[in-house]
Structures
1.
Amino acid sequence: MRKGSFVIAALLVLLISMIILSHVGQLVRMRTNGFSFPQKEIVINYAPSSGGGIP
């Protein structure tokens, strides 16, 4: 394997792990805060009908 492709693969793994860690952190924060207001955040973030930029 070339050095360049190895660097690209390492960066991709780092990016994916950072995304996963941020999602886990959000879930842990929701658990610790209780489910009074975080439920609204879940609806805003994940509802496809909201018409966000993410399909």
Note: The two ends are 35 Å apart (CA to CA).
2.
Amino acid sequence: MSRKLLFITFSLIVFYTTCCIFVVRGNEKERVPPNEMIQEFDVDRGGEYLLLPFTLNGKTYQFVLDTGTEITVLDVALRDELGKQIGQVKLKAPNGHSTANIYQAPLAFVGKLKFGETGYVICSDLIDMRRTSGKNVYGILGMDFLQNYVVQIDFDRGKVRIMDDVEHSTESLGKPVRIGFIRKSPPFVIAGPTSDHVSPFLIDTGSNATGTLASNIFDDLKKKNELEVLTSTKLQTITGISSVESGRLPVLVVKGSVLRNLIVKKSDSNSLGLGFWSRHFVTFDFPDKVIYLHEGKRFNEPDHSDLSGLHLLRIDGRTVVAIIDETSPAEKAGIQQADEIVRIDKEDVTNQSLFSIRQQFRSATTSINLTVNRKGHRIKLVVVLQ
């Protein structure tokens, strides 16, 4: 069989941002009748990656639930569990492309739900994702699987529910928002910061950022002083490192849901990540092409950016400085590349997730005390954030 070269958007981009997360309202126990629930999974509550169990040949791995990825991705460590290679695919990221192999989809299970046997999967090296997230991620569960189900995410309780449908009254689920699809691309919603800039926004649960704005919209809003430009920082993606601008939007409207002062990054397209969705109790009804949004407790919580200029990796259990933004508080404090962060204030970071560590650099605190390990020596430094 001749190899076919496919081109898709691989939107799982690891951002060093996030925001306010979370959600909750009244009596959630009655939102979904038990007889309509297929599977329920425990997930992190803070807006970190939504990790689901993926069982292949008797072994279970953590896969990221990613509505922004068209085709499910397995790490190269699982290549021997796959069959014959049937082609190649280009993976797209902000600073370029990489190529990965595609294989016939294996028989596997997401919880007790059958995956595979038809279609295909991508095999790619996800080591950078593991390092930037600090999570033991070995795959990305894409829309080829998710499109068949209703996916409900309750960030406050830390639950993901996968159902066949929602046949009962949907009033309690919140405001309905239509989902759009262009050919076989991942789903989108219509949203915008102003009436002049209403356009499709990718639904991207594979990003823990609030969202991105297409460069032409970002630049136009900046020119009109309708967006507060924040810092230019580095962005770690599956294909490397690039520089990216960020800005604060006065308002963002998604079908009657109005959010204010959100932080977005400049990109080649529009998207809404977990920093946005986690402000809601959200039900993605993919078969019926509709989302139900219910405001969460932290719907109006301020969105903060990481002020430190630090970009961290988790390597062999160590929290390592990979990049330092020029003229940033971290650089001014004397932090160097390859330093290992050992403590933040008096707390050991070994058991802290990278997400929670980054959250601390987004707080209203004016300074943070760090202890770093530099070539075997412990050094105490103060990072002044404001």
Note: The first helix runs from residue 127 to 133.
3.
Amino acid sequence: MNVSLFRSIANQYKDLRGVNTVSMMNSISQLIENQIIDNQLPVNFYAGFERFSYFPSQLRRYSRLGAVCRRVYVFGIPDVRPPSIPGIEFVEIPPSSPLAREWFLLVDTPDFWTTLLTQEVEGRDAITGGRRFDGIWSFDEQVVDRVSLLMSQVLENSYLPVTQRNPDRQSRHVADISGHLVGALDTVKLTSQRRWRQITTLQKLAELSLQNKPLGVMLNDAAQVLHTIFGATDVAITLSDDSAHHTMVGTAGNVISSKQSFVIDSGPSATALSQGRLVQIDDMRQARDRDTCLPMALSICTAPLVGRSRAQGVVVIGSPKAGVWNEEDGRTVAAFANMLMPMIERSRLQKVLFDVTRQQNK
């Protein structure tokens, strides 16, 4: 049967439709699934996976749904053999079926009703590179009724419409979902802000590389980028005078710049230098150690400045609070250090050439 759940609403609700990523689709799906699991709702649950090979990542979640629901129906192209799970029925669809390109969910009971209706669209998401889906998420009774009718036709079952609905129960479910959705959106917002800081930090450093500034000025500007844009409370950038002694060349925050050389012999910065890798500590109190460059910091993220032969310095950021930075923040600091080292070598070379030229002109 050539049935499309998405096309049943596509034209009528085209102004309400939107294109979503796989991540957003998973978030919406989990909100609906969690409402059923958390409230132990004995519903018939219908889910379109496009193909069975997309199902294994949801195995644990759907095992819980199978234990709660009256019945779970999973639709997909049988490109792999699905697992046997109590309470779950896998419904095979041919590759030519419109449902083979649709990600959908349906719940239709007197106390709770909702549906997610989407169709995969051409192209890939510009940021994630993943699939994209055009569709709508609805709590509208008429939409749910229409989709339930089509679902009965797909399964070749008799259509038994819900004749009496409980708006009070539905309102409570919608309120629960809305509360969870707000929390999810806040998390997405914070994640987006963090990623904006990460990207902008590297972008500003790239812009700084185009400016012809003395080494000390450039490194202080680089430290300010990590302080003002990335959000690090304290920043220290060191360069080695020889194999052991370092000088604080670029600083920001509460770090006091000094021309006096010192040895980096303790803490994460010492490890970063000796092992030539990023070191990230969430709470220095647990490490029972202090960093030579930022001794008062609780959160430390330090990356080596690796030249052609050895580590020639470190980029260190610190915070008086514990657990400030995540793994992506650490990768950003490592990328920052990798971008900064060629800038340092170029600046040093320019100074050497300038000194040679000045000597020749005497």
Note: The CA atoms of residues 42 and 295 lie 57 Å apart.
